[in-house]
């Protein structure tokens, strides 16, 4: 049986924040990719995964304090402190964005419940174990240059928990080993081939079409002027 089960899938243009400037968006691919929520039954964690070819573009483990923020009608983002990045998604419609945001909230709540159950089991098996308090990273102010208007947003940082060796091992595994990513790529490709979702259109296409129309009008005007000069 498959260890990870897809919960929800959609298509979107994937972006990552520029690690150098922390201000600009870097496209992860030229085309829209399938982005899915997965549940890892073995480790009781939820993840967002997107694969381009054989490369895992997104492999983000969802924690209870993560927040998905809508920065425009068709663009949203979330911060992943484990991956030390901010992911951005550009959708074909506002409806697709809303569906993804609603699912993010559902999965985040499920992750909270799963974490509490895990902590309860840990306390039962290790009554003398004391867990450290949550460490919250500072929230830098970033500027989004993704689809839609240019806006300021505050990234929501996720807490970093370091307790027992078992927890540290779980963290390493959740970030994905090479073999795990390869397995995900193969599995996800099969899921993607069966997907009936239409390819999303990037908002930049509208700008490109507008540019083409303006160029055609400019050429027509130039040709008219040439005709007048000849006459």
UniProtKB/TrEMBL annotation:
GO MF term set: G protein-coupled glutamate receptor binding
Keyword Cytoplasm: yes
Coiled coil: 194-228
Compartments, as annotated in UniProt: Cytoplasm; Postsynaptic density
InterPro entries to which the protein is assigned, alphabetical: Homer, Homer_EVH1, PH-like_dom_sf, WH1/EVH1_dom
Pfam family, one: WH1
Top-level taxon: Eukaryota
A GO BP annotation: G protein-coupled glutamate receptor signaling pathway
Residue ranges, annotated region (Disordered): 139-159
SUPFAM superfamilies: PH domain-like
Presence of the UniProt keyword Transcription regulation in the record: no
Domain WH1: 1-111
Gene Ontology CC: one annotated term: cytoplasm
Alphabetical keyword list: Coiled coil, Cytoplasm, Synapse
Recorded family membership: Belongs to the Homer family.
Protein name: HOME3 protein
Organism: Loxia curvirostra (Red crossbill)
């Amino acid at each position: 049986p498959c260890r990870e089960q897809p919960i929800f899938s959609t298509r979107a243009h994937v972006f990552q924040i520029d690690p150098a400037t922390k201000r600009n968006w870097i496209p992860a691919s030229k085309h829209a990719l399938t982005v899915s929520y997965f549940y890892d039954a073995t480790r009781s964690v939820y993840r967002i995964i997107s694969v381009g070819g054989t490369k895992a573009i997104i492999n983000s483990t969802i924690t209870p304090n993560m927040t998905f923020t809508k920065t425009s009608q068709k663009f949203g983002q979330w911060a992943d402190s484990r991956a030390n990045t901010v992911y951005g998604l550009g959708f074909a419609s506002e409806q697709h964005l809303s569906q993804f945001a609603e699912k993010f909230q559902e999965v985040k709540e499920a992750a909270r419940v799963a974490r509490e159950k895990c902590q309860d089991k840990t306390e039962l098996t290790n009554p003398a174990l004391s867990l450290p308090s949550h460490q919250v990273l500072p929230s830098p102010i970033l500027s989004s240059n993704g689809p839609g208007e240019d806006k300021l947003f505050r990234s929501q940082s996720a807490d970093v928990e370091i307790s027992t060796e078992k927890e540290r091992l779980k963290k390493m595994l959740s970030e994905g080993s090479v073999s795990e990513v390869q397995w995900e790529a193969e599995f996800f490709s099969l899921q993607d081939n069966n997907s009936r979702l239409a390819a999303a259109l990037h908002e930049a296409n509208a700008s490109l079409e507008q540019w083409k129309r303006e160029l055609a009008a400019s050429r027509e005007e130039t040709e008219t002027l040439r005709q007048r000069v000849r006459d």
